[in-house]
Design brief:
The protein has 185 residues and is mainly beta. The protein has strands at residues 14-21, 24-31, 44-53, 55-58, 84-89, 95-96, 100-107, 112-118, 124-131, 139-145, 153-160, 174-181. The protein folds into two domains: 14-63, no CATH class; 84-181, Immunoglobulin-like (Sandwich), CATH 2.60.40.2550. The two termini are 31 Å apart.
Length: 185
Amino acid sequence: MRDAGAVFLGDRIRILRVAIESQQIVVELLARPPGAPFAEEPSVEVTRRFTLRGALAEVGAADGDGDATGETFACDASLPDAAIVIVRVPRSGEGVASGFEVSGCSRTFEGGVNWRLLDRMVAAIAEWFTMGGGLDGPLPFAFTVEFNTAERQMAHREVFEEDVSNGEGFPPSRDVVPLLLEPGS
């Protein structure tokens, strides 16, 4: 064994998840907005990715969660006061196996976030709900999707707010992306 190095993640942050995905170490955490005092509870969701090729190195900010300036998406009160459902992981076109994690940010009626995984025939092969942000503001959400498929196929992951207005108001927020489903072993 040898030391691969260390990376400072932040002061008084909250680690939400550490995982290995696509040969990267993924750290999801809550940090504070710029200029916020350390006494403030961490509320800004940040995802940092690292590789281990000889030494620990952070993957550039322009790879998906942020832009070239290093800005990251903040799931906090700085977002507009409107209904939202934004999924950050997995990204469009990503290959997934049963048990994959979905995470994002939402602000919906009563905090309800519905989801389903639709196969290529548009049949639901998995569906349920989770909780995110509501009247008090946006909050992060996360859930695990278990599914069973005998073949590799394209599918759609859909995360959405139920239309409680029966078509009377602004269309509810919806995030839909194609995913490549890998069969179980």
